[in-house]
Q: What sequence folds into this?
């Protein structure tokens, strides 16, 4: 079951000449990561969640402050309540696991929100890549900086004030297949100077 996503042939989606020119096969695992929003039935075991958390905490972090904190949510009722405050995150109610990624401002480099957000974003991306590599489907659900979403997640999960919920990640066995791709556009690349 775990390997079903790997068995599906993953076509490379094309977005114009430039994007088809490369997509180096050595980076296949990276291009295969897509936002997966529908999930099949099936549990994601604790060892797999541990894999994802180890991937998260392998991310780069400014001055190695590691300001991140993670809340693993499996309770179906709680997943539904969390989803009800995320307008674009209703699929969280159907995920096997929700991972709420938070940052502790007291531990962030220079106690700066920007460092906290950059560090947490690196951790989130690592989780998404690891999930894809393990054949799971996952989707980043935005929380910060929407104040209503931050307040909703904070109150449901009892998150203390210096800790900021940055995102939730819905994780489950994929119920949809998406093509590998890059959204590479040459006009966004500046060489030597603007
Ligand atoms: C900061 C951020 C917030 C996002 N919030 C949501 C969200 O609330 N709901 C959702 O379905 N996808 C969300 N996404 C996923 C994006 O929609 C998705 O990454 C984008 O459409 C590109 O598609 P891909 O991930 O399949 O490459 C978010 C992504 C980021 C980086």
A:
């Amino acid at each position: 079951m775990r390997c079903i996503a790997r068995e599906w042939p993953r076509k490379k989606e094309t977005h114009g000449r430039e994007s088809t020119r490369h997509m180096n096969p050595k980076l296949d695992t990276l291009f295969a990561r897509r936002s997966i929003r529908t999930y099949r039935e099936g549990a994601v075991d604790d060892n797999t969640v541990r894999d994802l958390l180890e991937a998260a905490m392998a991310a780069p972090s400014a001055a190695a402050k590691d300001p991140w904190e993670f809340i693993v949510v499996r309770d179906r009722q709680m997943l539904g309540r969390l989803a009800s405050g995320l307008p674009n995150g209703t699929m969280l109610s159907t995920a096997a696991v929700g991972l709420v990624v938070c940052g502790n401002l007291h531990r962030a480099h220079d106690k700066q929100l920007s460092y906290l957000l950059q560090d947490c974003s690196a951790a989130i991306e690592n989780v998404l890549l690891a999930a894809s590599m393990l054949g799971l489907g996952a989707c980043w659900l935005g929380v910060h900086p929407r104040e209503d979403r931050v307040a909703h997640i904070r109150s449901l999960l009892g998150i203390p004030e210096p800790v900021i919920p940055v995102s939730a990640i819905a994780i489950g066995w994929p119920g949809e297949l998406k093509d590998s791709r890059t959204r590479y556009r040459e006009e966004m690349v500046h060489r030597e100077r603007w």
